[in-house]
Amino acid sequence: MSIDTTTAARVAKLARIRVEPDDLEALASEFNTILGFIEQLAEVDVEGVEPMVSVTPQRLKRREDKVTDGGQQARILSNAPDAREGFFAVPKVVE
Q: Which HAMAP family does the annotation name (predicted)?
């Protein structure tokens, strides 16, 4: 697949990036280089290779999945401009 200047201009517009008309040729060339790298990756045989999260083996920390109230209500409400009965108090906005 090859990217021309028209397609490069469209991609720039979709990404909301202003690209001067003089720079579209260079942008199209960069896109073509990136697509070349992707095509090289598609040629790699990954049959039997398990996905990994990191290059070094790691075990994720696990905790029991239980519902709590967080135990920080007073700390959270301490910065509220107006708190009543353990909740944030806000002005009424709907009549």
A: GatC
